[in-house]
Amino acid sequence: MENLQINAPYSYIVKCLDYNNIGYKAYQNYPLAFQPTRKVYTSDKLGYFYTDTKSVSKPICVSMDNKVVDGNYRLLHNKITDPSKKIASFKIMLGHEDALKVLKQIEDQYSKENNVKDEYIKCYREKPVGNSVSGNFFKLETFEGCIEYEIKFDKLFEVSENIIKSNTDFPPMALALKFADMQTLISQAEKHQLPLNAYVVRFVHNVCKKRGYDGIKYGNNLIQTIN
Q: Is residue 1 part of a domain?
């Protein structure tokens, strides 16, 4: 278990640690004081933190030996942008492997207690479902020659009609511009040698996947599955 994605709020984590008599400490320290545990980073997600100041300010969670349990990307972002500035940190008084195991148990418990009801949605497409790294697109209304599917979603990312209005011809672009500016999208598309629209579809797929979603619903007309 190299690293862990924590969605449970820290108030919940603290409550569980207290219940199990596990020590912890909330404090601030310099980015270089922590030891990263992720071996591979992607430019997509790292670039995302330049546009989401709320996410990047979330504490770095570390074990008692200062190894990162959650927050490798946030740590790298802060090392790059301002290594001389202290960042919010949360230390669990356990070794790295034990801290990972305990936090995974807490995260599993939190997910179970806050489980989103399964949602089955009827949707339609012209061609059979393919194996795409960016998911598959479906319409929510029938049309001539369509194939009907009923898909179960555990957690849908819903994009409002107001957001889609900014780009009705290509809804994923409207969503992408909520996570990154146009110049960043263009430069990343060029870096990955992809047409802009193809990169945007992959970009929103990956951002939502990392947030724990298994589908994106664009208003009342379109759904993108997340693999």
A: no
Quickly list DSSP for 50-117: TT-HHHHTSPEEEETTSBEEE-HHHHHHHHHH-TTS-EEEEEESS-HHHHHHHHHHHHHHHHHHTPPP
The parent domain of residue 190 ranges over 119-225
Q: Looking at 90, 113, 136, which one is the last position of a domain?
A: 113
Residues 142-185: tens digit of each pLDDT: 988 888 888 888 888 888 888 888 777 899 999 999 888 999 99
Residue 4 belongs to a domain: no
Dihedral-angle region of residue 145 (phi above 0 means left; psi in -120 to 50 means alpha; beta otherwise):
left
Do 211 and 126 contact (CB within 8 A), yes or no?
no
Question: CA-based angle 170:220:55, to the nearest 5?
Answer: 70
Asked if 154 and 182 sit in the same domain, the reply is: yes
Residue 147 and residue 125: Cα distance in Å, rounded?
A: 5
- Tell me the whole-structure pTM to 2 decimals: 0.52
Q: Confirm whether 47 is domain-assigned.
A: yes
Q: What is the domain-level CATH number for residue 18? A: 3.90.1530
| Residue 3 in domain | no
Q: What is the pLDDT of residues 15-41, one digit of tens each?
A: 999 999 999 999 999 999 999 998 877
d(CA 50, CA 182): 13
Q: Are 31 and 75 in contact (CB under 8 A)?
A: yes
Q: How many Cβ atoms are within 10 Å of 61's Cβ, its own excluded?
A: 23
